[in-house]
TrEMBL record:
This is Fibronectin type-III domain-containing protein. InterPro entries: 6-blade_b-propeller_TolB-like, FN3_dom, FN3_sf, Ig-like_fold. Residues 215-231 have a biased composition (Low complexity). Coiled coil: none annotated.
Length: 294
């Protein structure tokens, strides 16, 4: 007789135990693989760039020059501006400024503009700087337009009677303090000479800026104040009638001849006087007529 066979129940139990062990092994392996494949989330902290420091603004002719301290990590800068204070990130922006300075040009004259600047990197735009402001230059008449005038606050007499006296006259003199004027009103300069529309004497006077010498450029000779509207190639033969305003382009002088109701032109190099616009010689007709013919 052969060996007795184990009971069927024992065989089933053994099979179930083996299956349980196999399934447990699969579960353990699956969990291990899952643990290995799980990516640990990394929290990235983004640091906002700090505000650029020491922002300064300097006004010029139609422009404002900005300067600030460069910021480490900045790839560029954005300038925010307006002509009213209270600049914010919603103000007009000038982007992609690559250096730590910027010249803002094409501005109106005599206007105060306000600015802030922020650094930019790959994460975005940083904190805005403190506000700075500057006023553009005001243009003056004549060829000194666009030049900076330094006013130190000290007042001196450039030409005319000494302190304590107000003597009028029409005296020309190489010494400015010995020259005399009578109601000088309009003035202009080409940087070399100073020109004066002398209302009371009906003359155009010239002062050499470097020497102070005073001469009569156009109008009646010394000792006379004859008015009129005569044009002449010889300046001393020309006449004016209460000249009040004057400007220069560096080559010519343009005079507002008040009571003559004319605009006169003087060639600086020759002294020739002509009427640029207004009624013809011998007339002083006033009005407001526009015309293609001066």
């Amino acid at each position: 007789m052969g060996s007795p066979k184990p009971p069927i129940g024992n065989q089933v139990r053994h099979i179930l135990i083996i299956l349980s062990i196999f399934l447990l092994s699969l579960t353990i392996i699956s969990c291990a693989e899952k643990d290995e494949s799980t990516t640990t989330a990394t929290t990235t902290t983004t640091t906002t760039l700090s505000a650029p420091s020491t922002l300064t603004a300097t006004g010029g002719t139609g422009q404002v020059t900005l300067d600030w301290t460069s910021l480490s990590g900045a790839s560029s800068y954005t300038v925010y501006w307006d002509n009213t204070s209270g600049i914010s990130s919603s103000s007009t922006a000038i982007t992609s400024v690559s250096t730590d300075n910027y010249t803002h040009s094409g501005l109106d004259h005599g206007i105060t503009n306000y600015y802030k600047v922020a650094a930019v990197d790959s994460a975005g735009t940083g904190t805005l700087s403190s506000e700075a402001s500057a006023r553009t230059s005001i243009l003056l008449g004549g060829s000194i337009q666009g030049e900076e005038i330094i006013l130190g606050g000290k007042v001196t007499t450039f030409a005319g009677p000494p302190a304590g006296t107000t003597t009028s006259g029409d005296t020309d003199n190489a010494t400015a303090s010995n020259a005399r004027f009578n109601q000088p009103i309009g003035s202009s300069s080409d940087g070399t000479s100073f020109y004066i529309a002398e209302y009371g004497n009906n003359k155009i006077r010239r002062i050499n800026i470097s020497s102070g010498e005073v001469t009569t450029l156009a109008g009646p000779p010394a000792g006379t104040t004859t008015s009129g509207d005569t044009d002449n190639a010889t300046a001393s033969n020309a006449r004016f009638n209460r000249p009040a305003g004057i400007v220069t382009d560096g080559t010519n002088l343009y005079v507002a001849d008040w009571q003559g109701n004319k605009i006169r032109k003087i060639v600086i190099s020759s002294g020739e006087v002509t009427t640029l616009a207004g009624p013809p010689a011998g007339t002083t007709t006033s009005g407001d007529t526009d015309n293609a013919t001066a």
